[in-house]
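Subject: Pentraxin family member structure
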Amino acid sequence: DLYRKVFVFRKNPSDAYVVLRARLEQPLHNFTVCLRSYTDLSRPHSLFSYATKAQDNEILLFKPKPEEYRFYVGGKFVTFRVPEGRGDWEHVCASWESSTGIVRFWFNGKPWPRKGLQRGYAVGATAAILLGQEQDSFGGGFDFYNSFSGELTDVHLWDAALSPDKMRAAFLSLRLPPALLAWNSLNYEVKGDVVVKPRLRE
C-alpha cells in the first residue's frame, strides 16, 4: 500500500523506471489516467507510458516543457497548455472515450477545454506500463533525456472516462472507484534508482 508515499526518481538524467502491472482482459474503449508529480525539470520528460507491441505510444502522458502536457492515444497526441509550475505538486487526469474521440484533461482539479483524438480506436490490452521513461519499443528503447526526475504519486488507471465528480475526487485524494491500477494497491517493480518515501507534505 503506497498511501501517503511517493516514488522518488533521484537522478537526472536517469535510466530508472517503475513497471506497473495491470490485469487487462480486453482492449480499452474508454480510460482515465491520473497522477501527481513534483519536479523542477524544464526539459521534456515522460510521466506515464503504456506501450503495446504494435504501438509504443498507445497511451502516453508527456511533458515537453513546463507549461505544456501532451496526451497520446494510439500514437497521435493533443496538447494542453497549463500555467508554468510554481515549484509545487501538479495533479493531472486525462480521459478518452473511443465512441466520440473526446479527450478531457483536468489540471489541479480544474477541467481544460475538451479536444478530439482517435475516434473509434481501441487501446491494446497486452501492454508494458512504465513510470519515468518513454518507451520507443515494447518495454524499452528509452531516451534518458526524456526521463523523469522528481517525485510521483497517486497514479491510477481506470477502464472508464471518469465523471467530473470523480475527477475532482482524484485531485482531492478522496474515495475512488475500483481501478485497473490503484495507488493504494499498486502491483509494481522498481528498476534502477527509484526510492519509495513518505510524502513530505499533503
